[in-house]
């Protein structure tokens, strides 16, 4: 009976974590470039139930069947599907479209992302396409992270009156080149980890290249547009309701086990 408590309890914990993930997706529905998280549930290894009898030796007990030992959320990983684009008219917004990219070892597509610098000076990556210009005239994300050019340095835009071409070249209104956005080619997107503030950290062993001047990676940058979040609100709401109902079913099962234990202790074990 205690195994049943553990099984129901593990189900409740797994569904609670899944609900937190889905709720976070819904809260970032309007966040430019946000990639929805998705998860996978795995069950713990099953146990073999055998018949308990003093007449049977430990190694000759007949098997009754398998007994599940619960479920857990194995991992959370982003879905890097391209989101819809929205026109903003802002000169500092630059939506990134990837058309042709090489395949990963798993057969999926590689990922293109802008290269940025975090507050500690480390290289990070982002799919956000909503930029701004700080007080020093440097091009940054809306969270204040420097957008890097192909030379590895922050792009000095000077002001928001800039022009961004299809290949990411940044010029002023007079056509003077200020830099070029570095579009990183990430060979294994499954090794990207969200750090918050639209930043992605790469933990893979394979080296990251660049899509600039790379014939194997075709992309296009469109000024005045942003890539919206790829969260599907209808699907997410459906999954939220399913998760809540599954949580409640496990909760009722746990309450039933608890009531049975209470009767066992207070009624069955009572000395008349």
Description:
Belongs to the flagella basal body rod proteins family. Pfam families: Flg_bb_rod, Flg_bbr_C, LlgE_F_G_D1. Residues 5-35 form the Flagellar basal body rod protein N-terminal domain. Keywords: Bacterial flagellum, Cell projection, Cilium, Flagellum. Its main location: other. This protein has 272 residues and is an alpha+beta fold. It folds into two domains: 2-79 and 248-268, no CATH class; 85-227, no CATH class. It is built from two helices and 20 strands. Strands 7, 8, 11, 15 and 18 form a five-stranded antiparallel β-sheet that branches. The chain has a three-stranded antiparallel β-sheet with strand order 12-13-14, with no helix packed on it. The chain has a two-stranded antiparallel ribbon with strand order 1-4. Helix 1 (2-27) runs antiparallel to helix 2. It is elongated, with a radius of gyration of 27 Å. The protein starts with a helix and ends with a helix.
Shape call = elongated
Please provide the count of β strands. 20
Radius of gyration equals 27 Å
Write down the overall mean pLDDT.
87
| Low-confidence residue ranges | none
Q: How widely separated are the two ends?
A: 25 Å
The secondary-structure element order is: HEEEEEEEEEEEEEEEEEEEEH
Structural class, from helix and strand content? alpha+beta
Q: Which percent bin holds the helix content?
A: 10-25%
Number of helices: 2
Strand percentage: 25-35%
Please summarize the sheet with the most strands. 5 strands, antiparallel
* Total domain units: 2
Domain Flagellar hook protein FlgE/F/G-like D1: 115-171
InterPro entries: Flag_bb_rod_N, Flagellar_basal_body_rod_CS, Flagellar_FlgE/F/G, Flg_bb/hook_C_dom, FlgE/F/G-like, LlgE_F_G-like_D1
Keywords: Bacterial flagellum, Cell projection, Cilium, Flagellum
Main location: other
């Amino acid at each position: 009976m205690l195994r049943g408590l553990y099984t129901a309890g593990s189900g409740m914990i797994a569904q609670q974590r899944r609900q937190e993930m889905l709720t976070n997706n819904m809260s970032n529905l309007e966040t430019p470039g946000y990639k929805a998280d998705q998860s996978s549930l795995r069950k713990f290894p099953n146990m073999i139930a055998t018949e308990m009898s003093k007449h049977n030796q430990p190694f000759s007990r007949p098997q009754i069947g398998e007994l599940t030992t619960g479920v857990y959320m194995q991992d959370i990983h982003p879905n890097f599907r391209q989101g819809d684009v929205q026109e903003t008219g802002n000169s500092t917004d630059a939506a990134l479209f990837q058309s042709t990219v090489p395949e990963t070892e798993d057969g999926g597509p590689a990922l293109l992302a802008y290269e940025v610098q975090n507050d500690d000076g480390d290289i990070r990556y982002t799919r956000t396409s909503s930029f701004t210009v700080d007080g020093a005239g440097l091009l940054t994300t809306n969270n204040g992270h420097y957008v890097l050019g192909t030379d590895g340095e922050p792009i000095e835009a000077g002001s928001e009156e800039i022009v961004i071409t299809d290949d990411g070249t940044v010029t002023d209104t007079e056509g003077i080149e200020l830099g070029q956005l570095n579009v990183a080619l990430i060979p294994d997107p499954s090794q990207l980890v969200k750090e918050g503030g639209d930043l992605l950290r790469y933990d893979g062993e394979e080296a990251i290249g660049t899509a600039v001047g790379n014939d194997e990676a075709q992309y296009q940058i469109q000024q005045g547009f942003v890539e919206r979040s790829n969260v599907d609100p209808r699907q997410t709401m459906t999954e939220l309701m399913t998760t809540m109902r599954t949580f409640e079913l496990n909760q009722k099962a746990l309450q039933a086990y608890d009531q049975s234990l209470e009767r066992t202790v207070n009624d069955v074990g009572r000395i008349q």
